[in-house]
Amino acid sequence: MNSSVRVGLIGAGRAGRIHGRAIAADVVGAELVAVCDASHEVAEQSARELGADLWATDYQRLLEAPEVDAVVVVTPTRLHRDIVVEAAARGKHVLCEKPMAITVAECEEMNAAAAAAGVRLQIGFMRRFDASFRRAKEAIESGAIGDVVVVKSHTRGPSVPHEWMYDLRASNGPLAEVSSHDIDTLRWLTGSEAVTLQAFAGNFRSEAARSEYPDFYDAVLMNVQLRSGALGNIEGQQGVRYGYDAHVDVVGTHGSVQVGSLRGNSTVVSTADAGMRADIVPSWRDLFQQAYVAQDQSFIDAIRAERDPEVTGEDGLRAVAMVAAGNESIRTGRRVALDAQED
Ligand SMILES: NC(=O)c1ccc[n+]([C@@H]2O[C@H](COP(=O)([O-])OP(=O)(O)OC[C@H]3O[C@@H](n4cnc5c(N)ncnc54)[C@H](O)[C@@H]3O)[C@@H](O)[C@H]2O)c1
């Protein structure tokens, strides 16, 4: 494909607008031509800001448009399956935000639809495109730290959970919305799959959820045994308030790799009155802005080169399977075995 890829954005909320800006301004070989959002105002205003000619409140309008080659799906997770299956059937390439869907069965349908239509399907694990995460992957693959023994990955977000997340059956909760990234990092950096896992969780800050959703949790720890023999530990927390704190520690037989810093920049101000002060990373939007651009560029490059995306529907499915196993473990208090899968 030599001409530029014409992209439609479906869902122009927090993450959608980041994709929209990346495609409209930074990605080479792509054009943002359409925006859809369920909210009339959001759709119209975003299309105007992003320079897209077409806007709609019904995503079918974008899927019917011959001038749209690919869509980026950034709606609430529960809608991903329907939109992606229909988009694939209409011959549109798809970049779908994480979590891929709510259930493994939905992921299977999405993968089957993309395969049947011969379109590219990429899942939005943008940390794989972050320069620091890529450097860590290269160091591990070079053998510099020997065999991977332990991967600890945590994501702590400052903001309180959206109310729609309180119902774990509808949202899969923080393991899905927050820890999907850490789950993907664990699989990616080890190149191995989970064999068994156990998770523990509690609600420490989300007072509003307590009476109606007693099983909602805003802090979770998950221990994972991988087929390679490596051990994983994932921690997810919401509403920590102090900043956006994403960190990975990898320990090998000969060394270690660390990714992530709470420091927003390298400036430290020291005074007699206030002591030492430094800026904290405020949000994932700031930390991963360039990773979004690189991710969206990679999606467009995969379409133009007619190659598989770097992050596939299979990656999305395996993360959803681990989320489901983690929630089962929290519910039952038991260790959960994952289906036998080859690495
Ligand atoms: N990769 C990341 O780090 C990251 C970060 C944030 C969110 N996400 C994912 O992105 C998705 C969206 O999350 P968000 O935080 O941007 O949510 P959001 O609520 O800010 O935005 C969602 C948007 O989708 C719109 N919408 C709802 N139903 C729609 C429909 N039927 N058709 C078109 N638009 C519709 C809403 O009006 C809203 O503007 C979720 O799957 C979330 O997990 C990923």
From TrEMBL:
<feature type="domain" description="Gfo/Idh/MocA-like oxidoreductase N-terminal">
    <location>
        <begin position="5"/>
        <end position="125"/>
    </location>
</feature>
<dbReference type="InterPro" id="IPR036291">
    <property type="entry name" value="NAD(P)-bd_dom_sf"/>
</dbReference>
<dbReference type="InterPro" id="IPR004104">
    <property type="entry name" value="Gfo/Idh/MocA-like_OxRdtase_C"/>
</dbReference>
<dbReference type="GO" id="GO:0016491">
    <property type="term" value="F:oxidoreductase activity"/>
</dbReference>
<protein>
    <submittedName>
        <fullName>Oxidoreductase</fullName>
    </submittedName>
</protein>
<keyword id="KW-0560">Oxidoreductase</keyword>
<dbReference type="Pfam" id="PF02894">
    <property type="entry name" value="GFO_IDH_MocA_C"/>
</dbReference>
<feature type="domain" description="Gfo/Idh/MocA-like oxidoreductase C-terminal">
    <location>
        <begin position="137"/>
        <end position="338"/>
    </location>
</feature>
<dbReference type="Pfam" id="PF01408">
    <property type="entry name" value="GFO_IDH_MocA"/>
</dbReference>
<dbReference type="GO" id="GO:0000166">
    <property type="term" value="F:nucleotide binding"/>
</dbReference>
<dbReference type="InterPro" id="IPR000683">
    <property type="entry name" value="Gfo/Idh/MocA-like_OxRdtase_N"/>
</dbReference>
<comment type="similarity">
    <text>Belongs to the Gfo/Idh/MocA family.</text>
</comment>
